[in-house]
Amino acid sequence: MSQRFKKGLISICRYQTTITPYSYIHDDFMSDISKEEIAKHLKNLGPFPTYSNILNPQHFYQNSVLLDYSKKSPHPVSLRQLAGYGNTLTKQKIINSANFVRIELPIRLAMRIRDLQTLPFGVVNNFHLAQIYESYYHSFNAFRKIPKIHTIEENKKFCETLSTLLDDHVFNLSHLMMGALEVAIAESLPQNELDQFMSSMLRSRISRRVIVEEHLSLSQNYNTKPYDKKPPHYLGEMFSDCNAAENFKQVCELVVKSLNFPIERMPNLEIDGDLDTNFQFMIPHLHYLLHELLRNSYEATIKNLATKTSKRLPNIKVTIINSPKEVSFRISDQGGGINHDKLKNIWSFGKSPKLARESLSNFHKIPGLQLYSNLKVTKAGSSIITPNTEKFIETNTSLGEKSSTLEGFMARSYEYKLGMGLPMCSVYADYWNGKLTMESLEGYGTDILLTLSKLGYHSNIIQLDRA
């Protein structure tokens, strides 16, 4: 049996309930499984796996519709334009915004579906990436059929559908990351191609969710305070005024709580620089960035110094630098640094097969991880989105209460190292026209510099054009 075929069987077989979730990471796994057991899963190696509601023989004939959409260009829009649009809301503005989202989503989804279709078969047929393909096509198929919106009442129903979309597809991010790890294990794509694919998928995901959440935010504000004049640079409720020092303290509490280490010896967080720095940002994205960077520094410090002293470990130092157009954070630790040969790969999603197996095993240990799609289709293959009106009414009072995969990652226990934090943070920082760099002094510690552009000052930068 060839190694490539063996890897494919291992990837499929782990989903059988009689096999433990982590068996596939062991080299002797095949010796524990009978040939009869393996044979049950061979059909899932084909183009139409049994677990998919969408990938069926008829799907091929639907591609002509998709191709028409994938040839269209997404409408370029900046956050500054959104700010000006939401400054004073009217009924017509809300309706226009709804139709913009209605038209824009299928185009952006079609572009990413087409990217998935052009991947090598052994990549797109990966279980996790197939789940994403199904999820994207489900949304594309549903939203392209939504008729033009003419009234506020029609917009209310449309918002219910959008809210359901955000909740139903929240599992896509973990599937994308797990798919990248399995591709790395099988070495199905060169590292640079995997990085390009992941960056494109993540940026597009952020753009679509920002567009959706912005419309939900504007609609909510119009419903509660119609014609209310907003302050300059208003970007909707999804963007909050953030005090840099306070947000670092909040995130640090989460990090310290997740670490299994005596609190009396835990490194303190030392914050200096411009402590009064305030800027607008999306709280979930900001907290994820700060959380992953602080967590790395805390874990490295504890790992490197915990056995060398019985005293409190050296502080993690954060310096806040405020300028008119951007804000920067330098996070310094004494955690021993990183070997310079490894520095070039820390921003890559392409891990060695050994590290990828360890990370994938930790993914499966995260409580509540959703593996299978809950999306519904009719017998004829039409996608169904059933808005939960009651849930929409409860959660739409605050977009901060929407489900977030990033929050789930931050809440994970310290031993679940996913190996994706730095490349994920790099993409998120770059999306918001920022930058993430690291300097390491091997044997001593690291300095990480995170720079984020202030959203209201960049009128010519088109974040949402990253479709």
TrEMBL record:
UniProt key word Kinase: yes
Enzyme superclass (EC): transferase
Subcellular location field: Mitochondrion matrix
Keywords noted in UniProt: ATP-binding, Kinase, Mitochondrion, Nucleotide-binding, Transferase
Domain Histidine kinase/HSP90-like ATPase: 285-453
Gene Ontology cellular component terms for the protein in this record: mitochondrial matrix
Record domain Branched-chain alpha-ketoacid dehydrogenase kinase/Pyruvate dehydrogenase kinase N-terminal: where: 76-237
Primary localisation category: mitochondrion
GO annotation, biological process: regulation of glucose metabolic process
InterPro entries named among the record's database cross-references: AK/P_DHK_N_sf, BCDHK/PDK_N, BCKD/PDK, HATPase_C_sf, HATPase_dom
Family: Belongs to the PDK/BCKDK protein kinase family.
Name by which UniProt lists this protein: Protein-serine/threonine kinase
Taxonomic path: Eukaryota, Fungi, Dikarya, Ascomycota, Saccharomycotina
